[in-house]
Design goal:
This protein is of the alpha+beta class. The protein contains five helices and 15 strands. Strands 8-7-9-14-15 form a five-stranded antiparallel beta sheet. α1 (about 5-30) packs across α2 and α3 packs antiparallel against α4 (about 145-155). The protein binds 2-amino-4-trifluoromethylsulfanyl-butyric acid and cobalt (II) ion.
Length: about 260
């Protein structure tokens, strides 16, 4: 069952997603060599609570933290750790959720730590661009798989592969609602998109092969071939003509400025 949101609900979803966007902007100030992913988690949790929200991920199906921190070959759902200190040349996907007024926000961004291999920087640029390719298709009247088709064709044309085991999703009173939003698909297939649907689109793109490995910590998903992966996510409302992006990378981008890849 897909819950269509009223305009009022979309404004509440915007509030939650803007808290996530600002949290990621705050984290952008702290991502650097030497910091542990646990410290990033604490910064995020405090920032979310200071904004009158609750971290969506904390205790979600037993998840122990407020953000997911996935480094290098980790694709998503990496668990913050006091022992995981960022090194020069790492990349780190930070996925964040915030819950306020009964609605969730959900967004993710992959950051560079210091000097990163140019081919990996290009993977980040291309994955971020693929998210916007998907968003361009997320308009009333298109079909759900048009989104994944756009992401897949863009990424595969550059020689990357698309993760199949994890997908985007509806967002609302629950962090994960219907429909599932795959990052692959066939043009013109799937449910018709209707104004008022709110979805998270989150391409997970591998430099090497598409296969994944589920670590035995119960959460971390990494590439099977241990090559790097990138992950970017926005929550948006389907509208006529153009999607309304409820999250945003503007806070991150203004912190990173010229240092953004
Ligand atoms: N935000 C993730 C997603 O995009 C889910 C995080 S899983 C959690 O779907 F358990 F950490 F919350
Ligand atoms: Co999500």
């Amino acid at each position: 069952m897909i819950y269509l949101k009223t305009d009022e609900e979309i404004e509440l979803l915007r509030i939650s997603n803007q808290i996530v966007a600002k949290t990621l902007g705050e984290l952008a100030k702290h991502v650097r060599e030497g910091i542990s992913t646990f410290e990033l988690d604490k910064i995020a949790e405090e920032f979310i609570r200071d904004n009158g929200a609750i971290p969506s991920f904390l205790n979600y199906e037993g998840y122990p933290n407020s953000i997911c921190t996935s480094v290098n070959e980790q694709i998503v759902h990496g668990i913050p750790s006091k022992k995981a200190n960022l090194k020069n040349g790492d990349i780190i996907s930070i996925d964040c959720g915030a819950y306020k007024n009964g609605y969730h926000g959900d967004s993710a961004y992959t950051f560079c730590v210091g000097e990163v291999d140019p081919k990996i920087v290009q993977l980040l640029r291309d994955t971020k661009a693929s998210l916007y390719k998907g968003i361009e298709m997320a308009v009333e009247g298109n079909r759900l798989e048009d989104i994944g088709y756009a992401i897949q064709t863009y990424c595969e044309s550059k020689g990357y592969s698309v993760v199949r085991e994890l997908v985007g999703h509806g967002v609302g009173r629950n962090m994960h609602e219907e429909p599932e939003v795959p990052n692959y698909g066939r043009r013109g297939r799937g449910k018709k998109l209707v104004s008022g649907m709110v979805i998270a689109i989150e391409p997970m793109i591998n430099m090497g092969r598409k296969e994944v490995y589920f670590e035995d910590d119960g959460w971390t998903v990494r590439t099977y071939d241990r090559k790097p992966a990138a992950h970017f996510e926005h929550t948006l409302a389907i509208r006529k003509g153009k999607a309304d992006i409820l999250s945003g990378f503007n806070f991150i981008e203004s912190v990173l400025g010229e240092k953004e890849f």
